[in-house]
Design a protein that fits this description.
two-stranded antiparallel ribbon; 7 helices; globular
């Protein structure tokens, strides 16, 4: 995590070196080796387990700073089509510049005790925390490349076509639960 922060600071000439929440993801390969023995045989891979643990931890800490979830303007901006193409290598100045487009995002870092006149790497770390917190609570989405965007809208259920079968009969694609976790396809005779 620290090496990722140092790499970014060296590449962009930033000082001080400040770790961001997204830097944790750079350490996933070292964490997943520890999980493989514990979760062997699970359907989820060790990488997914590690990501879920990070997400749960960020959500818990985020909830401590924003217990009422009062970042509706930020979430709304993303839900209305706004995106931020950020990554763990984005320089602090570029991150802050992009974040200023989002209503209330930069101002919200004061809730985590970061002043608006803080050094840009510190301010960027606060912005990163807010974005990752919203992502952890599934209020915004993020691609693996750390691009933030609105959450997927819930698909509305499509109206089912009216059936021409007799009441109580099953169609060809309906399943009959035979208990003990087994299902068997019902067929017309």
């Amino acid at each position: 995590m620290v090496s990722n922060a140092e790499r970014r600071a060296l590449a962009s000439g930033e000082s001080p070196v400040v770790a961001r929440v997204t830097d944790v993801y750079a350490a996933l390969p070292s964490m997943t080796g520890k999980f493989e023995l514990e979760y062997e045989g699970e359907l989820k891979g060790a990488d997914q387990v590690a990501r879920e643990l990070v997400r749960a931890a960020v959500s818990t800490v985020f909830d401590g700073y924003f217990p009422n979830g009062d970042l509706k303007a930020v979430s709304r901006w993303f839900d209305q089509g706004g995106t931020l193409g950020l990554s763990d290598t984005t320089p602090a100045a570029a991150m802050i510049e992009q974040a200023r487009r989002v209503p209330d995002l930069v101002d919200s870092v004061s809730r985590v005790s970061i002043e608006p006149d803080a050094p840009s790497p510190v301010l960027a770390a606060g912005i990163d925390f807010v974005l990752e917190g919203l992502h952890a609570q599934k209020r915004i989405s993020r691609t693996d490349e750390r691009g933030y965007h609105g959450t997927e809208s819930l698909r509305r259920s499509q109206p089912q076509p009216e059936s021409t079968s007799l009441p109580g009969s099953l169609s060809d694609d309906e399943d009959d639960d035979r208990g003990e976790g087994r299902k068997r396809k019902k067929r017309y005779n």
